[in-house]
Each structure stands twice: as structure tokens, then as C-alpha cells.
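Hi F.,

I've been meaning to write this up properly since the lab meeting, where we talked about keeping a consistent format for the predictions we share between groups. The idea is simple: the sequence comes first, exactly as it goes in, then the C-alpha cells exactly as they come out, then a line or two of notes. No screenshots and no reformatting. I'm using this chain as the first example so we have something concrete to point to.
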Amino acid sequence: MAEPLIRVRDIVKNYQSDEVLTSVLTGVSFEIATGEFVAIMGPSGSGKSTLMHILGFLDRPTSGVFYYKSEDTAQLSDNQLAVIRNQEVGFVFQSFYLLPKTSVLENVQLPLIYSGKDQNSLKASTAIKAVGLEHRLDYLPSQLSGGEKQRVAIARALVNDPEIIFADEPTGNLDSKSGAQVMNILQDFNECGKTIILVTHENETAKHAGRIIQLKDGKIVQDYRVQDRITAKTSYLNK
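Output, unedited:
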């Protein structure tokens, strides 16, 4: 049996402010296999974004163990984690974080620049085509709809061909039609073998995933397979 891509055991995350200790995660354990589409759900303050930051190498747990590809991440330096974060992880956030005076093509090329790779416009334009925006290559973000901006953000997350895509409330700023398009794209990439970890508070959005981990007060209260999963109705990858 293949080793899980991610394995966490008894993850605790505390924050200290003056003399006040705040416990955000209080002993979280689970595994995620390569190619899974997992939604992390929970009310505000449940710890879901904190968990995503740990899984995405943006933060370290206070205690517990986090194995990535069977390697204990506690043994990795901050520089080693930064390399993994840059080369093996893609992020999509609720706010698009596009550079306003930079074209769609140039925005998508940014991870290639940060990783020291050539500004490969072919690789970037291929990622843009994969999200159905090849006709917007030279547009500025101000010329795009909210849904198009999020699709650019997805293309940017994919341009380095990451192992995992983290999507933190990716439909939060979108209307229902644009949100469905974004989730269809994420499902497309999951069906091509990408591991997707989605953070959302929306039940309908979570149903695009194959599995839901429900958090409450820093603990897992449910971890289950989605029975009535929503399937993508439009594929951008087979155009």
C-alpha cells in the first residue's frame, strides 16, 4: 500500500499573546492520499485556516508530527520548507492577489520567476488555456470579472505543476455561476491526478470534494466520504 502524501498525528497549534494562550488546534490526526480531493469545513474559529497554513508549509505546529511524502517536516529547515512551498504547492485564495498593472500572462508567470526558472511564456499560456482564458492573455485584472480573476489565480497556482493545490474559500467572492466554474476547474485537475485541499464553509462547495473533514473547536468531529458528490459539468481541459 502506498504511503500517504500527508500524514498528521496529534497536531496542536497554540498562539501566545502576552499572558493569554489561545489553542486553535487541539490534537488533529488524519491522512491524505495522493490524488484525493478533500474539503476542510468548520465554523469561523474552528481552526480550518490554521490547519491549511500548516499543511501548506506556511506555519509550523506547536506539537505533533506532520509527515509529507514520509518525511518529518519538523526536521526540515525554513529554507527547505520554502522550496517545497514554491515548487510543490499551489495556493488559491478568496482574494485573488493579482498584480493590478500586470497582464494575465505576466501574473501567471510569477511563480516561475520566484522559483528561478525561465519566464516560460509557453508554460504560462498553457496553464491559462487550461482554465479557459487564452483569449485574455494580455488583459489587466481590472478588465476581468471576479470569476475570471479567480481562474487566473488557479492558472498561477498550477504553472509550476505542483503536487498539491490548496484552495482557501476560492468561491467566497464569487457569484454562484462563477463559483461553479471555479469548482469545475478544480475537479478537472483532481481528475488528472492533482491533490486538492479545499477550505470552505459552504456545503455546496464542499460537495465537489470526495471527502470532507469537519472541524469544531480545533478538533475533527467528522471525516467522511461524500455520497452525493457534485460532478463537473464543463471540462476546460479537453478543449
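Notes:
The chain has a mean pLDDT of 91.
The longest helix spans residues 176-191.

If this format works for you, I'll send the rest the same way.

G.
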